[in-house]
Amino acid sequence: ITYQRMADGGKERAENHPIFDVLHSRPNVRQSSFQFREMLMGHALLRGNAYARIVPGDRGFVDQLVPLHPDRVVPVLADDGTVRYEYRQDNGRPEILFADEVFHISTLSDDGVQGLSTIALAKNTFGLAAATEDYGSRFFSDGQTPAGVLKMPGKMGAEAHERLRNDWKQRHGGLKGSQSIAILEEGLEWQSMGLSNEDSQVLETRRLQVEEIASIFGVPLSLLQHTEKSTSWGTGISELTLGFVTFTMQPWLTRWEQEINQDLILNKDRFF
Question: What is the dihedral of CA 106, 111, 114, 117, to 10 degrees?
Fold first, then answer.
């Protein structure tokens, strides 16, 4: 929402300001405001930078904000202290954009020009999570660990072995047979088999990866339906929501507001 300051110190919506419609309703011809902000937030969260080209037109010098993929933009500090952006177009040709042509949101930066990529900084964490999920998928899809084994003294012939296997599968296989009573003869014993320590550790690793990735983005586990552990933010939905807004959302809201005020609004004394 774009506001204008009133003489009495209050504020009211500046719905007649051209930037109001750009930010609130339609930043470009193909996206709604929500879609645009969602896309740029995704770029900023994962790549550390979010870019949009400032296109002039009927609504003023900011008629459209067109997203630029961060993988195709390289900000460069010029000799005069300004930042210029080297953008690779769809056809592969480079294009130089000046600071007043680009809306740029960045995360923590070590040079004041480009934000640090979350994927690059935490690549081992994301890599371990992906590898663990891949291993778990292959483990359960291959079904390498049977639910149990039938034991008997002595040795069975091939025909008896096959007959016992088929009979057991027919009587106790599938969902309907899972709770049926097994009657064992001739010294047969049933021995269930659980996951090994190594396989159980994989499951624990997956749980830990959820916690670690959530901590990178500052998301409380309760918001991810991961409620095995308590939080130090207090109890109850209201306390958790307040903590999330204060510690996670507020820095992002501040980034957006300050960049909008700096790059998109000319009369900063009156509008914000």
Answer: -80
